[in-house]
Amino acid sequence: MEWRALATYNQEYPHQCWEQTISRALSYNNNPLASSVWPNGQRVLKASIQRKKPQYRFSYFDDSDGSDFLTAYTYLVDAWLADGLNIRLEKIKEHNWVYYTLKNTEKYLSISAIDRSMALLALAAGEDISLDEALKYRQDIGFVDPFANVLQALALKTLGADKSLYYENLVADNESTYQDNSTNVFDQTSHQCFAALAFEEGSVEREELTSRIIAQQQRVGHFGSTFANGVCSYLLKDQPINKSAGATTLNFITQDNQINYQLESPTAHWLTMNYQEPLTGVVEQSAGIDIMRQRFLRINDEWQLITGAAKLNVGDIVKTTLTVSSPIKRQHIAITDDVAGGLEVISPLLKNVFYQANEDIDWQYNNHIDISNGEVKWYLIHLNGQQHYSYYSRVRHQGQFITGPARAEAMYRSDINARTASSALTID
């Protein structure tokens, strides 16, 4: 395990929704090197948690719709953390939403088997349900999804059930005979970590899953998402620290697009590189999703597309439109745009007239916008087909500016991402 790399990743992770906050807290709590790598991390994360408005149904952002899965996961993390989340989570009772999620079978509410299974696990971890009750609800949910099956199995294991009640389903889902890039039905690292927790310590299945999970983390420094980082850190909290591991600065030379360096001794090692790409050389890329950025200038109450040759003047109003598309439905997409130099973003929180057409119900509940540090960030709960998002700016400063690309990424699938090319603006 590369505990140091994981702690660094969690410290520097740029997005800050509720899931990411509690997942980073869970990862921090179980990472033996977290306090040395990020000394004030506990204080930062605790302050972020305590700022959360108390909710009966937790949402990713305070101004977005609540999530059944996230609410149950919040109670699970609270049970897994030794000192709790300190957000006044009450003991789960009949009227609480986690219990309601588990018990409710009304189809019109569209509470999925995965949501109900996470609720079952949260209740089991918090000792708020008996084994007999858990077996009853498990029968009601049914075996409809591999991840739901894993959550149910872990709930039963947590309550001390005989493994004969859940073991066969786990083994069937863990069958490693697929011929594509997956090695079993659990295609996400977070799912694999939940599955490993459900298997007995020392079992062949758990050891296989754990070794695969650790190998991936060693390659990239994290487990693929904050959600996976939290769950996998909890799974691997007893993994020893590699005391010989440490970062050493290397001297290198570049030649013909190659980096050459020598070690004092030819030992196996991991190479970590930090580099900056010139903005003028950034080209568009896409993997699984696409993003396009357009800027429009307001002239005579109409929006005209800004071309590469166009010049702006101080006082102009500019609309920036980001068009994001995906060939399949996706969830939890983060969009980040680098604000053009010389422009000052008009916040939608100020109820500016330009945003009125965007503030419908879907705008309120499907996304969240954050403006800070020269960037505009949108967080989409759902992405279905092609969607457009715009923000508005005033031109404030003269000069010639190079702007970084706009970027989109699936927050729980780091391999799904896209970016635009960089761009230039001239302001007279």
Description:
This protein has two domains: 3-235, Glycosyltransferase, CATH 1.50.10; 284-427, Immunoglobulin-like, CATH 2.60.40. The radius of gyration is 24 Å and the shape is globular. The strands form four sheets. A six-stranded antiparallel β-sheet has the order 3-15-14-8-11-10. The protein has a five-stranded antiparallel β-sheet with strand order 5-4-7-12-9, with no helix packed on it. The longest helix is centred in the middle third of the chain and has 17 residues, at 204-220. It has helices spanning 3-12, 18-30, 34-37, 41-50, 68-80, 97-103, 113-125, 131-141, 146-158, 167-173, 189-198, 204-220, 226-235, 361-366, and strands at residues 252-255, 258-261, 285-287, 290-299, 302-305, 311-312, 317-325, 330-338, 343-346, 367-372, 375-383, 386-395, 399-403, 407-410, 413-419, 423-427. By secondary structure, it is of the alpha+beta class. β10 (367-372) and β11 form a beta hairpin.
